[in-house]
Amino acid sequence: MAKRTKIPEKIKSYLFEEAGMKCANPGCNNYRTHIHHIKEWSVYQTHDSEHMIAVCPSCHDEIHYGKLTIDDETVYLWKNIKREKSNRDHLYIEPSYTSKLLLGSISVTGDNGVKVFELTNNTKLTYRIEDEDIFLMNLSISNQNGKEVLKVIENHVKYIVDDKINFERRPGRFKITTNRIIDFIPIWSMPIIHKMQPNYKIVDGVLTLTDVEVLKPGLVKVEGLWARNDVVIIITNDSLNFIKPGYSKPLSLIGEGENSVLKWSGKIDSSMFRFN
């Protein structure tokens, strides 16, 4: 048998782009991919991009060994989907009969979920519970002109395609950053932020707009910055902070971790934290 040769980088790049820089399976949201030879190398001994596809390790394994068969016809169907680079993602949150959002060192919860805050229609953080244990998060961030750069609707993520916005992800976590700090932070609030939050995530001129991570079933940690012209909310690793004009320092809520809990009772038709 001939020694298997490396797949040329040019072919890899072509196949990754063909698949939309994700697994080619339209039912899979994994972004880490392998190259699968639809016509097996052991038989044909060639790297022909017409018969190769980018799929994630899990789908690659299912193609070869899965009990629910993925035949060549299905794989070619995936390959022939016309795609552009995706600006979508999905955050899977393992179901649990207890649910909490960890905001710094304080958790918020509610029997049916919590609307944590809603500064504008596209600057908000909330979650709800469906069928007792399904955690559905909703989150949006906009710049000072009201342009939405990130939207999460019931765990489905959509972000703006912009060279000033960077989106990073792995299963169970995503983070969005920008080097256009002035677009997201009101000028009046900057002296307070720099004084009170020296460790907030502004590193080498790059601002973390939000960092969301699933820690446990039903427990999601959120950090980030949300602002409108008269209020700024900053969630750091340690605290939940509110800033308004005239404040000499932020109003900060600090607890002892996920077991320091604020509970919302009743319907989630109004915000836990409201600002006139």
Automatic annotation (TrEMBL):
Keyword vocabulary terms for this entry: Endonuclease, Hydrolase, Nuclease
Top-level division of the source organism's lineage: Bacteria
Keyword field contains Nuclease: yes
A molecular function GO annotation: zinc ion binding
Matches recorded under InterPro entries: HNH, HNH_nuc
Keyword Nuclease among record annotations: yes
HNH nuclease domain residues: 10-61
Name used for this protein in its record: HNH endonuclease
Native organism taxonomy: Bacteria, Bacillati, Bacillota, Bacilli, Bacillales
